[in-house]
Amino acid sequence: ELACGLRSKLRSLWEERELILSEARECAERGEELEALVRDVCKPNEFERYMMFIGDLEKVVSLLLCLSSRLARVQNALSRIDSDTDAEEKQSLNERHKLLSRQREDAKDLKENLDRRERVVSGILAKYLTDQQLQDYRRFVQVKTSLLIEQKDLEEQIRFFEEQLETLEKSII
């Protein structure tokens, strides 16, 4: 019964993932249209700034999400430490926690820098685009970021439920 419930939850998560992937494809199409527009109206160096920002947006957001996810897993492992846990494992988890915390802080700095660059790119685009086009650009950046977050969250949930199902199936055998 529990395994059946886990499989059902996984099916719904897989369906949700397909919807988000479809939305991501639509967003990518809007991004390509926007890229063509920006290429047409901006100077080459301004277009290059735009492209670097858009490329870095995905990288920095993905990095932050990955580090936060890894840090959460290490924190969960640390919370399960008890008197039976060997000292080497405790030390290893503590070191990983410190390292991931530093890396996440560095990634937050990258995100702040990216936010400043976004303001610069917005200023550049404001010179060339109509208010509606500028609004479309801002919506594109927001949707792209949201989709990355939703995808990562969904992948984490799927991984969790797949692990739960695998553990349950092994315990039944």
TrEMBL record:
GO terms for biological process: actin filament organization. Belongs to the shroom family. The gene is Shroom1_0. Residues 1-173 form the ASD2 domain. It comes from the Eukaryota. Gene3D superfamilies: 6.10.250.3120. It comes from Piaya cayana (Common squirrel cuckoo). The keyword Protein biosynthesis does not apply. InterPro entries: ASD2_dom, Shroom_fam. This is SHRM1 protein. It holds the Pfam family ASD2. GO terms for molecular function: actin filament binding. GO terms for cellular component: adherens junction; apical junction complex; apical plasma membrane; cortical actin cytoskeleton. Keywords: Coiled coil, Cytoplasm, Cytoskeleton. It is found in: Cytoplasm, Cytoskeleton. Residues 90-120, 144-171 form a coiled coil.
